[in-house]
């Protein structure tokens, strides 16, 4: 067993809404595993992704990621891990509209301060070629199609070669062709680099293409 | 630095109207703090000068506002009588400023002749950059008159040089000998408006003794009476002088004691300063609230951009540093604008050849301007801290979630 995620949540409370979700939830994920999370709206799928992705640390429970207890990590360390170890594949709207596609993709490189690195430049070119978005690099997101934007979001998620990819409804607004492209890119990463992939989706077809499916249910 | 540059050029400036609004609000706050701080400093400087006269037994003349004065009717014999009476019965400080006279100088400025007697000179304690203090025991019409010149005249009229000129108050050709040079920006505050100053960079100080007064014309006699200060006197003696002036010139003077002057300052200036400070404080609070509101509106508009940045590696501590740097830049821009406006304002006096207000300073600004700028800088720190911490608190209250990006 080579677990990279060991998560035990007693509960996650939303004080304003008076809501408690993910009660007594446990999750263990191995390196290179492809896991999908499904469930009705409001059961806590996105909240779970926020917790796994180190965006939310306000819950009761314990979380070990890459062998370290998340509770012991400083805010700066969490940001560093989000930058270097985790990639977020989100919907096509998750781009900064005032930046070009290239700048959007290179955003994580700026935070890692490796933009000018020659190896990184080559890695960037390889990814761009593979994803096929070279022609739109100088365009702004609103000048691109939904499929192109989705691929740009994907490129940004993998530019740092993360160990863990978290994807939230990555194909929600895409046509069949673009949906397939994104799914293939996701699984190619998994095969090529043994990257762990966790996908939150309503799409059962997409969920079924993962090795394991977790269904979240509403607390009684 | 790269991240800061990125945020400024790619995030903040994309909503330039909000940035411009913020700059205007902060400039308003800076300008308000600057003018108030400078006014307080200037009033305090004036008060310190007034304090030299706030001594037991000192009574300062002030023409009653209801006194009907027909200056055309005065005769020199009448004013002579008043000064004879003064010389025989009182110790008094006399000075009369602002007799503008054409006199060549390097800067082509108007030169003002200021007349001062020994008692007033002792009270003022002018500091010199060169030469010696004034002497008053010269023989008018027979000897050269020792004078002090302002710093602006020092090159044209250095210590030891002579100036031959028709004196504006005696209308006689006099020979002045430069005995000393006043320090740069030597000034005098108005007794009744302590924040108002006259600078003596282009002035010549002429020592006045009894013989000089006897030779002087009505202008000096009447003008000097307006600010004359009786020293080592009593209320009764000041009343006698008041009656004497009224009999001879028909002018009604009030003679205010040290305590009365102090009360006047307390009632009028301290209270008005308190009001100015309170209004400034309230306006600053309003401006800070508007600036904070402006920032929070910006945050709402940019929350998606912030969330994406937080997802890919931005931390709250970096974000805080970005905001502090951003506001630091905005405040620096405003301080630079304030500096340029003030420097240009000071330079304007030189351009207009206004010798009363032409001053010397580092990059054109005099000490009270620099102190006021330092106070503004301190206030900027407080405003910046308030806005940034409220902004970070607001951003932190919005949970970072991939849900924001759906």
UniProtKB/TrEMBL annotation, chain A:
The lineage of its organism: Bacteria, Bacillati, Bacillota, Bacilli, Bacillales. Keywords: ATP-binding, Nucleotide-binding. GO terms for cellular component: plasma membrane. Gene3D superfamilies: P-loop containing nucleotide triphosphate hydrolases (3.40.50.300). It comes from the Bacteria. This is ATP-binding cassette domain-containing protein. SUPFAM superfamilies: P-loop containing nucleoside triphosphate hydrolases (SSF52540). PANTHER family: ABC TRANSPORTER ABCH.1, IMPORT ATP-BINDING PROTEIN. InterPro entries: AAA+_ATPase (IPR003593), ABC_transporter-like_ATP-bd (IPR003439), ABC_transporter-like_CS (IPR017871), ABC_transpr_LolD-like (IPR015854), P-loop_NTPase (IPR027417). The keyword ATP-binding applies. One of its GO terms (molecular function) is transmembrane transporter activity. Residues 7-220 form the ABC transporter domain.
Automatic annotation (TrEMBL), chain B:
This is Peptide ABC transporter permease. The chain crosses the membrane at residues 12-32, 281-303, 323-344, 370-392. Keywords: Membrane, Transmembrane, Transmembrane helix.
